[in-house]
Amino acid sequence: MAETTTTDSVVIPEPVTTYDDGGRKQPPPEKAADVRRRTLVIVSFWLIVLCLGLPIWWQTTTIYRAKLPLDEMLDWADGRACRPVFPLRISVEANDLQHQEAQNLVRLTQHALDDLNDFAGHHLRLQLASSGRPSETTAETDEDDTSALTIRLVQGDSTASALHPHSPVLDITYPPNSIPTQTSSSSALASYIATQLRSTFAEEQAIISYLLSTTSSFPAEQRPQGLTPEAADALAKRTTRSLRYSPTYHLTFSLFTGGHLPSSWDIEAAVAEFMKPVLDILTPIHNFTIDTQIQLYATPGVQSQVLNKEDLSSFVNAAEWPLSPSIGGAPTVNFIVYIGNQTIGLPTAEQAGSDGATATSQSWLVPQWGTVYLLPLPEDKAHVSASTLKQPLLTFTSHLLSLLGTPQSGSLPLRLSTLSRIRSADLLLRASSTLGSLARLSLALPSISIPSSVADGVSKTMSHLRLACDTLGTPGALYHARVAEEEAERAFFEKSMVGQLYFPDEHKIAVYLPLLGPVGVPLVMGLLNELKAWRKRRREAVDNGKAKKET
Amino acid sequence: MRRFLSFFLLSFLSFCVAASDYHEQLVLRPLPLSALLASFNFRSNTSLSAFEAHNYRFFPRSLGQILQHAGTRELHLRFSLGRWDAESWGARPWDGAKEGGTGVELWAWLEAASEDEADHKWLTLTNALSGLFCASLNFIDGTRTTRPVMSFRPEGNHPSSNSTNMRLFYGVLPREVVCTENLTPFLKLLPCKGKAGIATLLDGHKLFDASWQSMAIDVRPVCLPGEECILEIEQTIDMVLDIDRSTRPRDNPIPRPPPGHELKCDTSKPYHSDDTCYPAEYGANQQWSLAQIFGRPMKGTCPLSDPKIPPVCLHVPDSRGVYTSGGVETITSKDGLSRCFKVQPEAEFDLVLSHVETEGVAPPALAGSIIKPETPSLYAERSFTGYGQERGGVQTILRNPSPDKEVEFVYMESLPWFMRIYLHTLKARLDGSLTEQTSLIDEVYYRPALDRARGTQLEIRMRVPPSSTVFLTYDFEKSILRYTEYPPDANRGFDVAAAVITILDDDDDAKSTPGGSASVSSSNLRTTTLLLSLPTPDFSMPYNVIIFTSTAIALAFGGMFNILVRRFVAADEGPEVSLKRLKTRLQTKLGGLFKKLGKAELKNE
Q1: CA torsion sign, A481 to A484 to A488 to A490?
Q2: What does the alpha-carbon distance between residue A543 and residue B13 come to, in Å, rounded to a whole number?
Q3: Taking the CB of the first residue and of the last residue of chain A, which one, N or C, has fewer CB atoms within 10 A?
Q4: What pLDDT was estimated at residue A23?
Q5: CB contact under 8 A, A25 and B55
Q6: Percent above pLDDT 70 for chain B
Q7: DSSP label at A99?
């Protein structure tokens, strides 16, 4: 059998006859049927490998990845899917005015408001309350309405305004001559009302614009401009201090004492008296469970008599004090009364300005955790009465409001309705960013498996986000945002996804090489030889053809 | 004697309940062979209404909210180490009611409307307790949980209205090693936190160095007629310390043989001389002090406890001298077998038990130095029989030492699912006779195992006649586990939980049924855990299998493929395969390469 070796360019025909001396004989020429059969054998082997082996291997080794709507998820995260808009409806009650006059006043005020407003996300929409309604609107009837605030216009001697302390009502008195005429394009009363409204909602606006600005993904044109760095700073402080939203909070009241006295307290009565009213008002937004405990022989983390600012963070002896969070999923807010005569060294006067709001000389607030109150008591007192607990509990109540992220200005009902709007915006943004993280994660780790439950959660999240986004500013939004956030978190922390299968490449080699090496080498070599023989046969055929032509 | 004691305890308990919400007591009892039993008992109460309102005073909040979250009505948790040597130490403390088998044991009555809810609550409970006590209780899953039918009875008083919804779960982790990380949360549950009172004596180094120790937590509701129901948490630590071991100095803990002149010898032996010595059993009358044994003195009393109850009691005969630190009031009991000490609230308390002088060795002197331990009502030991990797057997030897009283009890085994027992081989026979006695077994409750889902539960109500020994035997088959089911260090073997023996007392039953609410005093006994060795594979097996099958496939495939594809010619017809030919081929190839290179260089020039 003659052999040819091919190099890159030159084909050197081997001098076959050199070796053909002596007894070496040429094998008899191969039968054409044999050659064809060999080709068929090799082709069929390769067909089996390619058509059966490869698909099976592919089927059995692929990781299940449910299809996620990645583009939509990223849209949510980047703020393209939802433009958070808070259309706040404000109804105006002006029973003393003619309908025409009132309409005009409302129109002018709306103009003035629109001129004042620089932030598109927060709209105040005025509307005239239907005149058929009685003027003595109580807080209860207002609740079911979608209006966030009612302006009650009453004729009086001079222009003045006052927030109703127990219902979301802004009383405005005006002198009779200040009603704008039909034709006038501006009015002092209208701009006065506009300014009043704006100042009422200034804090809410600032917080929402801060929330939007911290979510860096939102496009720049949607971000509000009017936030000064100082205001942003203060808001950042308040936001980091507040707890994550949860429908239920566990409140734990603990009495810690260094010795064995006192060993009992009237906490139940004290809570009922000083804290319960506020908790009751908060019920539409949060539920609270309360537990109390007494811990004796508790040594604080810091022993010094005067605690300075650095000591406060290590005062709570987390290793020894049984302050384990309550079970049941909801976050725990800790309120600690420590019996001791330690005092807090307040910072100097100019620093006190910024911190004075939270740190009195006896208590301090631990961000996202709770409050510690130092209560000095005579040594031999065995029982702490409810009246002694009044000051601590009032402190706890105000700290609870700030831990929940309630705004600081305005009347209580207004603050609470603002709180629910802020919370829904916050949850919406959180859920969106979780979706974005999930999308980025699934893009970044192609080997991670995505079970169908994740896809399920994502679709649920998105439908609830859509609902929440459409109803922003109403109570329903809070519910939808809450569900969306829960679902997003569950999808992101899916167990089977987090514990992704780690199968290093060395192991793959260890499994594949022993099998594929011995099987693959004969297969590949057979194919190569066959190809070579085929090329040779073709060349020979061509050569023969040429020779025939020449002859 | 036992009945009298339990009656005394009951009345004592009711007195306590009325007097104070917190109670603690340490009972010291020297045992033969230089052992000392120390029983710590702490009990706090809270009214059920305060508990349900989440107001915790002496009841620990961390445990309380777990109980509420999991709907637990009664809870018993045990952490134990070592073996109670019943032959020399006698009856168990608290009649064995406050001890567990080696490892962790948990049983609880949960209130649930349906089975699913109950299972879910049990899961919640084990997971939450696991976090609280830093133990692997979360590994108590379906395979380690049983629902005993005859063995456990509620200790508390449960109003009959909800008793139908109460479900008993029993889980056990025999492999768990109890250590300091379990003691710390245990002490945190106490109102005085180990900072005052008898709890100051508890130190992880000494406790876990003991020959036997058991930590117990019992939570049960107690309703006394005419009073508000209370929830009682009782924490107990029982430990048997080796006096020699624990009095060893801390800076020099390595045991060294005492010099010859300090050896205590049994002079009554005939071969006793200057250079031969038979060590005398002197441990019992050794001198020791509280500070020596526990490493530190006791710091006052816990001010919350009832001042009328002495915090420390010592059970030694009157004849033995005891010295205490100042300001301590000693109360001697009338029978002359125990004395109790009332301690100043703030003062440190120490106690020295004096050495008993003996001339030579004299058994009567020994009897004077300690109180002879009570004989237990039943001895039990359990061991594996058989050989090989496929089958095995379990033999439990139960001995009744009483000359005239028959003992009736429930023997409970909760076995892992990979130990498949053959119930037909279950036999009980009396010592001396070779045939089976069916009359010994009254009742058998058997719940067979399901592979990987639940374990075997076997409860046998049986009796042992007076002064006789019963052999209870059965055979089992060892199953082969899946590759991933073997724990780390699989060759060590698998722990099989202790068998629980509940001794039934007819009189107690009769007494408690008419009253309807009296708490049932139970008398328990646990065998040691067993170490079952299963057929263990070589864990490099998967790779061996891969390589082996690959080789086989490669051999078969390569041969077949070559036969199909190769052309066979005569040896002198094929291409010559020799070293010479290889050389020439190489040379031609290299020559061609050099030629090309040379040409390229010429072109460049």
Answers
A1: positive
A2: 115
A3: C
A4: 59
A5: no
A6: 89
A7: H
Instruction: Pick the residue from chain B with its C-alpha nearest to A291.
Output: B54
User: What percent of the residues of chain B are helix, what percent strand, and what percent coil, each to the nearest 5?
Assistant: 30, 30, 40
Torsion of CA B175, B178, B179, B184, to 10 degrees: 140
How much is the average pLDDT of B450-466? Answer: 91
For residue B466, the surrounding DSSP H or E stretch is none
Nearest to B29 by CA among B89, B99, B95, B100: B89
Contact B550 A320 (CB under 8 A): no
**Pairing mode of beta strands B230-242, B312-314:** unpaired
Task: Please give the helix or strand (H or E) that residue A163 lies within, else none.
Answer: strand A160-163
What is the C-alpha to C-alpha distance for residues B403 and B381, in angstroms, rounded to an integer? 20
Categorize the per-residue pLDDT at A350 as very low, low, confident or very high, splitting at 50, 70 and 90. Answer: very low
* CB-nearest partner of A515 from B53, B553, B585: B553
B120 touches chain A (CB under 8 A): no
**The one-letter amino acid at A250:** H
Structure confidence by residue, pLDDT tens digits, B19-52: 358 888 999 998 887 888 999 999 998 888 888 8
Condensed to tens digits (0 to 9), the pLDDT of residues A456-488 reads 889 998 898 888 888 877 777 888 888 888 888
- Whether the per-residue pLDDT at B365 is higher than 80: the answer is no
CA A533 to chain centre: 66
H-run or E-run covering B30: strand B22-31
| Angle, CA B251 vertex, CA B246 and CA B254 arms, to 5° | 65
Token pair in block for residue A267: 């906490």
Cβ of A517 and B570 within 8 Å? no
Cα torsion A152, A155, A158, A164 to 10°: value is: -30
Q: Is B589 close to A7, i.e. CB distance below 8 A? A: yes
B304 touching A (Cβ < 8 Å): yes
What is the pairing mode between strands B523-526 and B500-504?
antiparallel
- Nearest chain B residue to A264 by CA distance is B57
| Secondary structure in 3-state letters for B543-587 | HHHHHHHHHHHHHHHHHHHHHHHCCCCCCCCCCCCCHHHHHHHHH
Rounded alpha-carbon distances, angstroms, from residue B492 to A269, A342, B530, B531: 59, 56, 12, 8
- The chain A residue lying nearest B60, using CA atoms, is A293
Question: How far apart are alpha carbons B552 and B546 in whole angstroms?
Answer: 10
Residue type, A427: L
Return d(Cα A230, Cα A399) in angstroms, integer. Answer: 22
One-letter amino acid identity for B27?
V
Q: How far is B234 from chain A (nearest CA, A)?
A: 18
Joined together, the tokens standing for residue A154 give 């009453």
Q: Is the dihedral of CA A138, A143, A145, A150 positive or negative?
A: positive
The length of chain A in residues reads: 551
CB contact under 8 A, A260 and B554: no
**How far off is chain B from A480, nearest CA to CA, in Å?**
28
ipTM for the predicted complex: 0.76
Helix (H, G, I), strand (E, B) or coil at A533: helix
Strand, helix or coil at A389?
coil
3-state secondary structure of B103: strand
Using the structure block, give the residue that is written with the tokens 């892992």: B416
Determine the average pLDDT of the residues in B512-537. Answer: 70
Closest CB to B557: pick one of A14, A290, A519: A519
Beta-carbon pairs below 8 A across chains A and B: 130
Distance to chain B for A38, nearest Cα, Å: 6
Q: Is B66 part of the contact surface with chain A (CB cutoff 8 Å)? A: yes
Q: Is A514–B550 a contact, with Cβ atoms under 8 angstroms apart?
A: yes
Of the candidates A459, A548, A472, the one whose C-alpha atom is nearest the C-alpha of residue A204 is A472
A519 to B562: CB separation less than 8 angstroms, yes or no: no
* A39: DSSP letter: H
Angstrom distance (rounded) from CA B582 to CA A513: 30
